[in-house]
């Protein structure tokens, strides 16, 4: 006798997110409805609403997952050993590359990120905090090793983030590419310029 195992709530949530993500990429955010997502899963819209109160809640979950991939890479770089400059270059290069591969080449996914930014969702705010903490950790390592001046690591991380905003914001990265620029190359140049003020010479 076959026993039918019901999926756990976590598994159902994951299926809803994955299905919605695929539909948003195929149909676009605006054209996809909760009924479309439910139909693709073979369930009722009411069942989807049991796990997500709105379509925007589903989108925020997708956004959180996407930004989580960037955050994981940032922490991996921040916790690695090595000089401050190359580590920060790898961190920002990872952000730029992710934007190019996911938010820019996938126009419909890019639209989701725009909605998240415009509505100032918690996912975006948490992502900014995570990247700031990763940059701060690298700076602390540099201060401890004597590679950089004994600056305030949190304040300096905030300054670096403001100076690199053009390479962390998917809309600005998309615009740079449309203008024929090379964000990875230009971002590395900008970062090296910013670091000149704090890296000890000789």
Task: Please sum up the structure shown.
With 202 residues, the chain is mostly helical.
- Largest sheet, described in full? none
Radius of gyration: 20 Å
**Could you tell me the strand content as a percent range?**
under 5%
* Class by alpha and beta content: mainly alpha
Give the N-to-C terminal Cα separation.
Answer: 76 Å
3D structure, described in words:
- There is one protein chain.
- By secondary structure, this protein is mainly alpha-helical.
- It folds into two domains: 43 residues, Arc Repressor Mutant, subunit A (Orthogonal Bundle), CATH 1.10.10.60; 134 residues, Tetracycline Repressor, domain 2 (Orthogonal Bundle).
- The chain is built from ten helices and no strands.
- Helix 1 crosses helix 2, helix 1 packs across helix 6 and helix 5 packs antiparallel against helix 7.
- The chain is elongated and about 65 Å long.
